[in-house]
């Protein structure tokens, strides 16, 4: 901070000039739609969410700042270099002024644009943006040397955060590799010999789906879960009435059942750990295992393995938006079923390894969050400049 303060005192002692975005940039939207997405497309396709899609065609070849026109307004920003496609409700800001660094303007918008939009709209909730809101956005334009230093500092914070996130992903990948090796058919056959069978889920479990209608939520009652709650079923803050639950769920989840995502993100599982009543949405399917044939945690692990995901993908409707697997096809998915004592051995090993990996990784998300807060604090301090009189 002191270096930038010293530079400002020397280079612009009377304050920093502010210009509107219209004066320093070309602003516009794309013309692509969601259906232009191609899974293995050649070019990045920027839409209205943080996730970057792909397309086989591009509209622009440039350095730009891309942000959402609705949905995640003021929260999603991409710094883009090269060829890309752009959704018709996403905006591009292409810097045309020689005395403004595109990367500097990116950081300035990340820090200040949402505050500006909320103040202009007189609301903390802004659902959509129009071009005039971009055109009038005031950007501080200090000397290029100051801009370079701001970019250097903020990029270094980002690099530190990325290093921690990469380490966390490496831990997760290590666990996934070990799980996949343990659950491979070759390894299971070594343990179980000829006593391993490849069976469809319908042979060893009953499969149900949740309500197809968005329910009327209540402040008290039965917890309601969907795809977003799969990593922690009991953390859901949505509830439905006891009466609605009794009418809609003839086969409610019970302790030992498995809930699996089947729309959008397919194959993530959670074992129901208690007898607490749970209501669930159609995006999840409920698998009620025959405990004499398969253990719930073994079923979870095998479905989440690479072989399990590959088998699920055979029945996934890739042309659906979002992608999905029909309820009737879940029962067709074939998985290796060794004797229960082998399943228990696998579960014990993976539970232990999962606990060890989680323990090692627990500190990383906390450190990432701390670094992120630190970075936001310095970013916002760096990008507030005294206005030139």
From TrEMBL:
This is Type I restriction modification DNA specificity domain protein. Residues 13-169, 199-370 form the Type I restriction modification DNA specificity domain. Transmembrane segments: none annotated. GO terms for molecular function: DNA binding. Keywords: DNA-binding, Restriction system. Belongs to the type-I restriction system S methylase family. One of its GO terms (biological process) is DNA restriction-modification system. The keyword Nucleotide-binding does not apply. Pfam families: Methylase_S. It comes from Bifidobacterium pullorum subsp. gallinarum. Gene3D superfamilies: DNA methylase specificity domains (3.90.220.20).
């Amino acid at each position: 901070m002191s270096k930038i303060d010293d530079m400002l005192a020397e280079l612009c002692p009377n304050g920093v000039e502010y210009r509107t975005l219209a004066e320093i940039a070309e602003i516009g939207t794309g013309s692509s739609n969601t259906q232009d997405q191609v899974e293995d497309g050649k070019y990045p396709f920027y839409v209205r969410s943080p996730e970057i899609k792909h397309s086989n065609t591009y509209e622009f070849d440039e350095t730009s700042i891309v942000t959402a026109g609705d949905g995640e307004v003021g929260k999603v920003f991409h710094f883009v270099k090269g060829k890309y496609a752009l959704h018709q409700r996403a905006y591009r800001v292409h810097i045309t002024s020689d005395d403004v660094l595109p990367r500097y303007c990116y950081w300035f918008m990340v820090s200040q644009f949402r505050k500006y939009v909320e103040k202009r709209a007189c609301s903390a909730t802004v659902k959509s943006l129009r071009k005039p809101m971009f055109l009038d956005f005031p950007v501080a334009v200090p000397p290029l040397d100051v801009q370079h230093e701001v970019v250097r500092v903020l990029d270094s914070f980002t690099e530190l955060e990325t290093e921690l996130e990469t380490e966390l992903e490496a831990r997760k990948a290590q666990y996934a590799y070990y799980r996949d090796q343990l659950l491979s058919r070759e390894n299971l056959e070594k343990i179980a010999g000829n006593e391993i069978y490849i069976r469809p889920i319908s042979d060893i479990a009953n499969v149900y789906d949740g309500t197809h209608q968005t329910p009327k939520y209540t402040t008290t009652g039965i917890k309601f879960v969907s795809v977003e709650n799969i990593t922690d079923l009991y953390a859901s803050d949505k509830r439905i009435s006891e009466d609605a639950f009794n009418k809609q769920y003839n086969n409610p989840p019970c302790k030992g059942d498995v809930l699996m995502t089947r729309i959008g993100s397919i194959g993530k599982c959670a074992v129901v750990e208690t007898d607490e009543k749970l209501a669930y949405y159609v995006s999840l399917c409920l698998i009620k295992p025959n405990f004499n044939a398969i253990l719930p945690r073994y079923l979870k692990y095998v479905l989440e393995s690479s072989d399990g995901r590959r088998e699920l993908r055979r029945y996934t409707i890739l042309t659906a938006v979002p992608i999905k697997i029909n309820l009737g096809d879940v029962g067709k998915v074939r998985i290796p079923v060794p004797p229960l004592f082998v399943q228990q051995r696998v579960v014990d090993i993976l539970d232990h390894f999962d606990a060890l990996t989680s323990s090692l990784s627990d500190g990383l998300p906390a450190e990432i969050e701390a670094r992120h807060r630190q970075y936001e604090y310095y970013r916002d301090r760096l990008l507030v400049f005294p206005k030139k009189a």
